[in-house]
Design a protein that fits this description.
CATH class of the largest domain: Mainly Alpha
Radius of gyration: 30 Å
Order of helices and strands: EEEHHHHHHHHHHHHHEEEHHHH
Strand order of the largest sheet: 1-2-3
Number of domains: 3
């Protein structure tokens, strides 16, 4: 067990560390001694690790501040984070001194003061860094909307991105970024604490002009579009302040939305159209071989296009007693990928043209792996050139609705339909 920076006084463990030479120009302390207030070696090691990280961040902040004449934004962030960690290690949430004075119960404030005293060597005065951390002496750095978004990506929403493929992560981030970009364009890259209800209402007014334009020649956007963008900045505001411990902070974007139009459903392909047009011999010739096979598998499985193009060879199980494909998430490796929901993980039997496509799939669909947009663009272009779309509203996704419609017409049990569709 690593016992670096640890010493015992009696039975109590202490943190004992010299200030590294390269930081002595910034930190005048020769040695740091702090009581860890524990008799357990394992707990002392854990607390020691947190203090090591906090000190490293603090020294890095001092060095960076010196390089930038004391005005380094990164230094302020690092210094603040070090204070937060020190407070947490002592069993407290970090709070600015004004909040402690005005909002915290006197008993908890006294506990903070006692912790400052107990952490010090009996022969020394309390360390400034510990005092600042427990009594709120480090100013919280001002974070602008664009910076809050980066904090959201890098710290707050790590779990949401953990199992996404590179394309899924890029698409997810694009949606979040777009919402923030619209807000910054209209209201500016404001400091998060300075966003007011007036800013939110002004932003709503701008979206109202997009949804109900005063110019009759301007194409209106849908209420759904406006709601997604407003919802994006509302969510960022909520999650950022929850992250820094201000869960109760009123959200200026609360209750701001537009009445949504009824969702436009992608129409299904008629069975006759699929049989007589799409499956007409030679109709798909000229398309890339992988595109043809993907289309055939979509017709007879009802899967989402992304579920087919991201299959791995081991997911196409032709030799099973019932040939099928396995739709599943993958948590690691080059093919890492999330599925839409837990119910989307399923096995779908291969029949008809889908079975033959599965036999010919070989190494699956490597060209379109994690390239949903490329697949969509290529196949839609191919279908338009061949007049395979009955209307402008039809999409490749129409095969999924067509499959579901055929199951309904065949009176297949509702539960089985949901299972096959991944609902």
């Amino acid at each position: 067990m690593d016992m670096s920076y640890l010493m015992q006084r009696g039975e109590v463990w202490w943190y004992n560390r010299r200030v590294p030479k390269k930081y002595r120009a910034f930190d005048k302390r020769a040695r740091i001694r702090l009581s860890l207030d524990t008799y357990a070696r394992e707990e002392a090691c854990m607390l020691r690790d947190k203090l090591v990280e906090a000190d490293n961040q603090y020294w890095a902040a001092l060095a960076l501040a010196a390089q930038t004449d004391g005005n380094g934004k990164d230094a302020a962030h690092a210094n603040y984070q070090a204070a937060v960690q020190r407070a947490q290690m002592a069993g407290f949430s970090y709070r600015p001194v004004l909040e402690i004075a005005s909002e915290e119960p006197l008993t908890e404030t006294l506990e903070r003061l006692l912790s400052v005293r107990d952490a010090a060597d009996p022969e020394d005065v309390p360390e400034p860094e510990t005092t600042e951390a427990l009594l709120g002496g480090v100013a919280r750095p001002k974070v602008r909307v664009s910076e809050a978004l980066q904090i959201y990506f890098d710290e707050i929403a790590l779990d949401e991105q953990m199992y996404k493929s590179p394309q899924q992560k890029a698409s997810w981030r694009k949606v979040k970024t777009l919402a923030v970009t619209y807000f910054i364009e209209q209201c500016g890259d404001l400091v998060m604490e300075e966003i007011t209800r007036d800013h939110a209402l002004a932003y709503k007014a701008w979206w109202a002009e997009q949804v109900m334009p005063s110019d009759p020649d301007k194409e209106p956007l849908t209420g759904n579009t406006a709601n997604r963008r407003i919802g994006g900045i509302r969510s960022l505001y909520r999650e950022y302040f929850k992250h820094i411990g201000e869960e109760e902070r009123p959200n200026p974007f609360r209750s701001i939305n537009f009445k949504s139009r009824q969702k436009t459903e992608v129409p299904a392909f008629a069975s006759e159209w699929v049989q007589q047009k799409v499956l007409q011999p030679g109709k798909l010739s000229g398309l890339k071989a992988e595109l043809q096979l993907i289309v055939l598998m979509l017709i007879e499985t009802g899967c989402r296009p992304s579920e087919i193009i991201n299959l791995q060879p081991q997911d196409i199980r032709i030799d099973a007693d019932v040939p099928h494909i396995a739709i599943r998430s993958r948590s690691h490796g080059a093919a890492k990928r999330e599925v839409k929901s837990a119910s989307s993980e399923r096995e779908v039997p291969l029949v008809g043209v889908a079975l033959e496509a599965g036999r010919r799939a070989g190494a699956a669909f490597a060209h379109y792996q994690d390239r949903n947009e490329l697949f969509s663009a290529n196949v839609m272009q191919g279908f338009r050139r061949r007049d395979l779309l009955p209307t402008k509203a039809h999409r490749i996704y129409s095969f999924r609705h067509s499959f579901e419609k055929r199951m309904q017409e065949a009176n297949i049990d509702y539960g089985l339909r949901c299972l096959l569709m991944g609902h």
